[in-house]
Amino acid sequence: MKSITKILIVLLIAAGLYACSDNGTSVNIEDPIDSDIVTIDNDTTELVGQMRGTLRQGRTYTMVGDVIIPAGEEIVIEPGVTVIAAGDGGDIGPEFTINGSFKSLGSQSNPVLLTVPENLRTHENRFAGLWGGLQGSETTEAIVLKWTRMEFTGGEGGPGTPRAGRIRYALWTLSDQTEVVIEDSWFYGSKDDFYRPVGGKLNIVRNVFEEMGEDGGDVINVKGGTVGNIAYNLVIGGATNAFKPSDDGESTIQSNVGIYNNTILNSGYRRVGLNRGANINFENGARGFAYNNLVVNNKRGIRILDDSDLMNIEIDYNLYYGSHQQKVDEFIPSDSEESTLAVMGENNWIGEVGEYNPLFVNYDIDRFSMADYEAGENQPLEMNIATPWNFRLQSGSPAIGVGKTDFSPVSVEFTLTGAAAPTIMQPSADLGAYPTDNSGLRLN
Questions:
Q1: What is the CA radius of gyration of the chain?
Q2: Domain residues of the chain, as ranges?
Q3: What global pTM score does this model have?
Q4: Is 174 helix (H, G, I), strand (E, B) or coil?
Q5: How many CB atoms neighbour CB 409 within 10 A?
């Protein structure tokens, strides 16, 4: 009799997991329970599993496994926090899987550091993909990085994660409604693309990107449904493209990206062949513009494929510099010459070898040989990092005061407010990321 009673109790409990709504339909109330989500508190030092809350100023936290931010929840990181992606001792580094929001809000005097254990922070590990970075989903609301350094990202995703069994990008978003704000931050070493937005609202301004991509991959590889601006960034030593807008995908929102006042150097040479761009590359239905950029010693010039939205692209007021004839020969990419010229204005500075030197304050622009550029992973270290160089403009630079200012950034509707809100940057008449009035990139 006791056994029958127990069975009846179990059945009654199971039946109680379902209730009727007012309209008579069944409602499953066995959805995820808040008690399954760990709220970060003053005693938290290790991060793993479903979490929400605030990482407190100046503290160090260790990721001992994947951290999952559930839909509707967020993790906020205060200034001076260090997050060490140590993992659980296995071969696959941890990641933040973001179904809600992730906001890293450092400050100029107290930046946030997202990194790996100190003994692994070596030049040899720049393409090792030691942890998975920030992996979004279809429900991601926002990802904000301000005054944040993130490094040594990529590598294969683990079971049950968004990119299980595939190489992870340092940052990946999948919804055209996700808001992404990346400002005043520094990124070093990524195995493949740094950021692949498959849709989203972007404001990516005043950042430094070093050594992105091992033998391929772009810094920002835009897919369909992505709208926003990329401005006042320094890209040095990228494997393929710095910025590649495309409209690939199923979103009904056309990719529309404004790319202006960036400085792009020494990129494109770790990708074999000429079947890709090497700095700014519009393709496959994307629209937008590229103004006031410094394109210096890259494998190829700005490239516009004939399948992009040629009626709604304009390329103008950009300065091209090449130390070698091979670079000058590809200022107008040979595989897309007609379509590139079709959208180019009449105010680009495109000369011969050594012409239109932008006169950086502290950088020998002609110091590397073609053999150095073509050395793959054996390229000189100094070719691909921003330190100790100074890419501001000397007095007398041909890049000063000649840019286009009579345009507006691409219009994007953000809901982010307060410290997480985007800084919408207006164009400068000085080309590149470092206008002489110090209104642009603030990192050396």
A1: 24
A2: 38-420
A3: 0.92
A4: coil
A5: 18
Residue 192: both structure tokens together: 């493949």
Contact 218, 240 (CB under 8 A): yes
CA distance 309 to 390: 36
- Return the ∠ at Cα 390 (arms to 229 and 267), rounded to 5°: 55
Q: What confidence tens digit (pLDDT) does each residue in 375-416 have?
A: 998 999 999 999 999 999 999 999 999 999 999 999 999 999
Q: What is the DSSP letter of 424?
A: P
59: Cα separation from own chain's centroid: 25
Task: Say how far apart CA 55 and CA 57 lie, in whole Å.
Answer: 7
Higher pLDDT: 235 or 30? It is 235
Query: What's the CA gap between 133 and 127, in Å, rounded?
Result: 13
Phi, psi of 273 (to 5 degrees): 90, 180
Nearest one of 313, 348, 312, 317 to 332, comparing CA atoms: 348
- Token pair 């990181």: residue: 77
Q: What is the mean pLDDT of residues 89-93?
A: 92
Structure tokens at 145: 């990085």
Residue 204: closest CA among 246, 233, 174, 176: 233
Kindly report the CA angle at 427 between 195 and 175, in degrees rounded to 5? Answer: 30
